Amino acid sequence: xxxxxxxxxxxxxxxxxxxxxxxxxxxxxxxxxxxxxxxxxxxxxxxxxxxxxxxxxxxxxxxxxxxxxxxxxxxxxxxxxxxxxxxxxxxxxxxxxxxxxxxxxxxxxxxxxxxxxxxxxxxxxxxxxxxxxxxxxxxxxxxxxxxxxxxxxxxxxxxxxxxxxxxxxxxxxxxxxxxxxxxxxxxxxxxxxxxxxxxxxxxxxxxxxxxxxxxxxxxxxxxxxxxxxxxxxxxxxxxxxxxxxxxxxxxxxxxxxxxxxxxxxxxxxxx
Length: 271
Known about the structure:
The protein is mainly alpha-helical. The protein has two domains: 1-60, no CATH class; 73-77 and 88-245, no CATH class. It contains nine helices and no strands. It is flat, with a radius of gyration of 24 Å. The relative contact order is 0.12.
């Protein structure tokens, strides 16, 4: 894609957002924009940054994701098998390892998740550890992408995976601390952002194109859906574990003739 075309396309995508924001500011609120020059420079930087990011996607992330998928599924790389035999799903173990590690690493580095975790830590007064929250989300993302890769290898329909994940989310929502539920759902959304989506999409399409009998259209998509759901599950699961541990009775027995003050129970809703 031509660089000028990317810059022009990005500008057309941003202009409606700018028009809506300034339209509400001047026509509805009817107040001037404070530090207008600073805001204008910020919008210019967003335009240039997004344009270069899209160029980087086309030149690096998408090609590398598809290349890794094709290399990890190449017959010369996979374990040898007898003539006429069908490959077992376990032969693609390097695909699962790559999916898990790339899912966890990209999620940890996701700017949207970093911003949300820091904000959650400040609002909660320190009861939510931002890095622990990112680890919980990264674990769910990694598991979701790995499961999506296994689904493509097996050629199984996506709807059963999504239905099972939603049932688990509903059950956890009914049993998790209420204070963590909104954050868990938001964490599932912010994971599929600027860094993770291109790599996940390229990996899924590359796998579906490289594995015999798979369709890029039918099997290549859907991995992002699983990547959104499983971080919700892991965040609420971690909150449930933290509450269970805080409610466990102490195993320390008091010495004869002494009294032990009951330890203060912290916020059982905290991460």
